[in-house]
Structures are given as C-alpha cells and as structure tokens.
Give the backbone structure.
Amino acid sequence: MKRNSRVLWAASLGTYAFLYVPLVVVVVYSFNDSRLNAEWVGFTWHWYDVLFHDEQMLGAAWNSLVIGLVSSAVATALGTMAGYAMYRYRLRLLPVLVLTPIAIPEILMGVSLLIFFVMLNLTLGLVSIILSHIAFSVGFVAIVVRSRLAGMDDSLTEAARDLGATPWRSFRLVTLPLIMPGIVAGALMAFTLSIDDFVITFFTAGVDSTTLPLQIYSMIKIAVTPEVNAVSTLLMLLTLLLIVIATRLAPGALRGE
Amino acid sequence: MTPRAQKWLISGPPLVYLLIFFAIPTLIMGLASFRYAGELGGLAPLTSGDPDELAGFTLESYQRFFSDLIYAQLFFKSFIYATVTTLLCLLLAYPLALTISRSPKKYRDLLVLLVILPFWSNFLIRIYAWMIILGPQSAFSKLFNGAIGIFGVEPLPLLFSPFAVLVGLVYVHLPFMVLPLYANLEKHDPTLLDAAQDLGAGAWKRFWRVTFPLSLPGVYAGAALVFIPALGIFAIPDLLGGTDSILIGNVIKQQFLDARDWPFGGVLSIVLTLLAILFAGLAAWVARGQRY
C-alpha cells in the first residue's frame, strides 16, 4: 500500500511539473538578455521596455480591455438572469442554449457568427467581437450563479415572503446579496474568458480591432520573441490576481461546483 | 405581476440573446452549406435576374464533400488525434486525480486549484511555451537529440511535427480530464477497498475490480470534455504542427478566411457539429448505464 501511494505521488508530481514547467520557462525568459529563447544570458527589463513602447501591442491591449469590460458587464446581467431562471423554473430551451456553446468546438461558433455578421452587413470590429464574447460568456456566468443558488437555503426567501415582502423585494434584499459572490465570480470569469479568447475573436475581428491574443498570435506565427514572453507574464499576473479575487469571493465557484 | 410574466421577464432576455447570437447563426451556417459560393468569396445571392448567374440552393458542396475521399480522411485524422489525446490525458490524469482524492481533505482544494490554474492562463501562451521548449535551440531539444544520438539516431526536429501537436493537445486539455475524474473518485467509499483487501484482493486487483469500474462515469465525462473540443481545434496544429498535421479545424478556417468558399466551409462545419453532438450523446448514453 505504501509503495503504491509513493508511485502515485511520483507520477502526480511529474504531471504537475508537466503543467507548470512550460509556464515557468515563459516567465523566466521574459527577463533574459537574449533575442533567442534558448539559453540564459543575463537579467534584463529590456523586453518589458520594448513592450511598453510597442504602439500596436498597447492598442491591442486597450481593445481587449474595452471588449472585456463591456462584454463581461452584459454577460453578467444576462447570465445571472439565465442562472436564476434555470434554478427557479423548469425550462427546456434555455438550458440547451446556455450549455451547448460551452460543449461544441469553439471554431463552429466563430464561423457561424462570421457568416451571421457579414449577412447583417455589420462591419467586423469591436462591436461584432463584443456581441460574440457576450454569447459565449453567458453560459459560464449562468452555471456559476445557478450553483450558488443551489447552495442557498430556500427558507430564507420563504421567510421574507411570509413577512410580507413582495417577490421583487425578497429577491433584492435576500437572494441578491446571498448570490452576490457568485455573480462577481461569474463576472470575473466572463472578463477572463473575453481577455483570453482567441478562436472566436479570430473569426469576428476586423482590420482595426486587433485584440491582445490576436496580436500575440500574429507575432508568434512569424517568430519566437521575448516581447511575447513579457506580455504573457503580465497577462498571467493579471489572471492570477483575478482568480485570487474570485476564490476569495466564491470558494469553489471556479470549479463549477 | 403574474408568475408567468415574471418567468418570461427573467428568462426572456438571455433566451432572446442566445437565440439571436447562437441559434440563428448556427442555422444560417447550416443553410449556407446549401448555397453557391459567391464570385468574390462569401455566398452567391439567393435570387438573381441573370439566368447565367448561380443563385438559390444546391447540393454542390455536399457532392464535392462526398466525391473526394480526402475530406473523410481528414475527419478520420482529426478523430485519431482526438482519440490519442484523450487516451494520453486519461493516462496522465488518472494517477493525479487518484492522488488528490486520497490526500488529506484540507489539501484537496489546493491540489485541485493547482490543476486549474494553468488552464486560466491564455491559451496561446500555453502553446507558445511549447514552441520555446520544442524549438530547435532549446535545452530540451538538444538533450533529446543528444540522447537519441547515443543510439545512432539522426537528430529529429521536435517542433512543427505531429509529436508537438499531440503535446500541445494534451497540455491544453488535461485539466478537463482531471476535474471530472477527481469529482468521481472523491465520492468513492474507502470501505469498499478495505472489504476487497479483507477478501484477499491485491492492490492491482483492487484497482481494476473496484476503483476503476466505479470511476467509469468520470472517465466518460472527462473523455467527452477532452475529445469533443480536441476534434475541432485549429490553433494548435497551426502553430505547433507542420504540413503533415493539418486537421479539420485548419481546413474549416482555410475555407472561411483564405479560400472564402463559405458553402463548402459550411458543409465541413455541419459534419463537425454532427460528430460533436454524436459523441456527446454517446458519452451521455454510456454514462447513463452506470450507477454512482
């Protein structure tokens, strides 16, 4: 028994290493004083300096921020409604529409939205990206909110109703504060998904609406450059920060419990 | 306000949004596969006054799909890549999920979080990391080629190969296998293993006859979560693969963005959608036969 668990632990440690070594490599080489991501030469902030003077990259980061903020705000409102509706009522169509975008390969949503926007004569750009990001984030928010509701004690809202609160008052004063951590976690999740999305953005972006992932893609498609390491490191820090906030607000929410 | 009105007020907005920006575009993609390609890309008009101009609906793209074996082969290749990815993920994820589920309760959340954390870093960054590691000048490539050199094997390029594509696919999808497996293994009753031991079963037998069969619903769930997204992936072969590892996702991308033959891209997308639904249904159906 002891020997078996030691073998299991060794295998697990190997898998953790497999998960983390690549990311550590990216971070370490972002401080490397060499154009090649091959050998450690010496410490430098040079690539961060290059990054903060790269107009295209800064423009892309700005686009990503705008898209992330607007799409996560709308997705949070719609997703909270969807999560509440799925918890409260027996619905047929809504759960299917909420869950399928998560389950099917992303490229399918990307190409169908491309056809759709072109047919509507909508110029591809920030607006089309935002509309697409809302569409794929709603489901994630809905799942987090519904799971938060499922963990809630129903007798609290019943008590509020017994004490004479209208449905809206009992929702606003009892349910909403209780599920607030779930809503905030959902919002952070929608924001992260939007900032990170590559595939759907790739199909719905126009000429002047390059986002951070699209910019990274076009750079690494040509060559490996430490500037990408620097922007990656900063993005990882941002995501880590958002995750810390999210887990503080709603423990377990990120695992879809 | 009646309860009915309330229900519509709450479920209406997300329903309408997803109908417009998910259901309708998907249907339009389906319809597009029955149209003619436009002369300048995109779609030909639905109606036309000029009889020489192609307009309306046609089965042309479907005929093209079925007349050339190369597209079926492409789907088969994607199927093989997705299957191998799923198996490798299972192989890596199982010991990890088992270890986490048998760890002291207070560490489990942290160990699970450590699995999820890399998943939250940008998808392209994770692929880029492997471009560095497998690149020709990397320490890993030199070590690897040095090692096979001892046996007299010529140095192999690791990047832009099917091997790199598989590494990328496994790396990106691994958490999706670990989480459902762990969720299942955590619920197992440890007394079952004690009982098996008392009845004389060795460690290996206890695993194959007790733990593994009980974990099958988790295996199916994880397999579906890895296999279906892996089937349609295009960025990983695009960045890590060479010309020999083009998968169906790459060809769909080509049809829509480079060749601009939307009807044919639509056909490929519809087939991919049907396959995704088929495999999701299959996983659900197999899992239904299981208890736990």
User: Anything to note?
Assistant: The CA atoms of residues 60 and 226 of chain B lie 33 Å apart. Chain B touches chain A through 83 residues (CB under 8 Å).
